Amino acid sequence: MECQICGKNFQKLNKIELEGTVVSVCERCMRFGKVVEKKVDYQEMKRYVSFKPLVENEVTFVPKYGELIRKRREANGLTRIDFAKRINEKESVIKRIEEEGMEPDEELAKRIENFLKIKLTEDYEE
Fold first, then answer.
1. What is the 3-state secondary structure (H, E, C) of the chain?
2. In terms of pTM, does the model score above 0.90?
3. What are phi and psi of 68, to 5 degrees?
4. d(CA 80, CA 89)
């Protein structure tokens, strides 16, 4: 295919708007107009895609971890707000964790475990 500005042949062309007209151009000539459609070169894209390898020993949370956190927090006489301040986290995050709407990341789980002296995670092997 031929670039409509420089006239060179390319395998892929992009569309730009140039003075009210949509034209097919190469990568270099794209700077002369507003990009309307950029073609993706899937060969180039492959090098940016990576997959997380399957992990055999994966950490999982104990059943009803949210209820466990809530009960231990209340046993210590703490409100969500007080507990959140003590472990340096937002109260809304603590609420979502206690309702099991989200799982804490490893670092937050360790802070909760250390503060409340409980075990939230267990090793899981397939």
1. CECCCCCCECCCCEEEEECCEEEEECCHHHHHCEEEECCCCHHHHHCCCCCCCCCCEEEEECCCHHHHHHHHHHHCCCCHHHHHHHCCCCHHHHHHHHCCCCCCCHHHHHHHHHHHCCCCEEEEEC
2. no
3. -60, -45
4. 10
- The model's pLDDT over 66-86, given as tens digits with 9 standing for 90+, comes to 999 999 999 999 999 999 999
Question: How does 56-83 read in b/e, with b if 16+ C-beta sit within 10 Å?
Answer: eeeeebeeebbebbbebbeeeebebeeb
Q: Which domains does the chain have, with CATH numbers?
A: 1-40 (no CATH), 57-125 (1.10.260.40)
CB neighbour list of residue 88: distance below 8 Å, 6 or more residues apart: 111
Max mean pLDDT among 9-13, 32-36, 76-80, 104-108 falls in 76-80
